[in-house]
Amino acid sequence: MSAQVRARRLRIGGAVTAVALVLVACIAVYNSPLFAIRTIEVVGAQHVSAETVRALAQVPANATLIRFPADAVATRVGANPWIASVTVSRIFPSGMRIRVVERVPLAIVDAGPVMWLIDGTGSVIATASADASGTLPVIRDVPGLDLKPGRRTVSEPLLNALKVMTGISGTLAATVQSISAPTIDGTALTTVDHVEIVIGEAVDLATKDALAQRILKEHPGKVVSIDVRNTDRSTWRGLK
């Protein structure tokens, strides 16, 4: 019996020693410069430069592929208003890849002294450049705006206008020059041909879109305004 006890104790002692050695080895590897991050690859950055992304990332000098600060880096990079999402991954043996997806401006919001780029979710991106002013529709007449980069608007008329723009067909959207959104019900599109299309609330958009395009097709060059808020009784007004 004593021999069996000694054997059991030896086995337990050996197991404990092995576990301790493994723990010591793991701690040593964790604290060592092995797999130190020496290169940072940035993918997907266009409006935000790769240098800016690296600066935002603030990767610690002692970071490794084991001590990998993925969450902290993603949080810091994602704070930039242009960035919609961030994925941070390892590149063995000594690299980090930061993949960003940038926000896509949908429109320009006229907020008085400042013109803001905004995406389809209502997130304010940045002030509008001269190039953007010539390619994106302008949303006007929205009351009580308080827009800041990196923050999503809470304005219901503005959010409704954005839902209209993302909900109508690409064919109609391509003709929109500006959107007036003083209220949800008063939301109206103005086309490049200076036709006003009163859409109202962003519901039944496929039907409203089809009605508006049908009227434009049936009366080319004659339509001044179209009201499709009531899809059962759409109306239009032409040149006198």
Structural features, described:
The structure is a single chain. By secondary structure, this protein is an alpha/beta fold. It folds into two domains: 39-102, Ubiquitin-like (UB roll), CATH 3.10.20; 105-238, Rossmann fold, CATH 3.40.50. It is built from seven helices and twelve strands. A nine-stranded mixed beta sheet has the order 6-5-4-7-8-9-10-11-12, covered by helices on one side. Strands 1-3-2 form a three-stranded mixed beta sheet, covered by helices on one side. β9 (188-191) and β10 form a beta hairpin. α2 crosses α3 (70-78). The radius of gyration is 29 Å and the shape is elongated. It starts with a helix and ends with a strand.
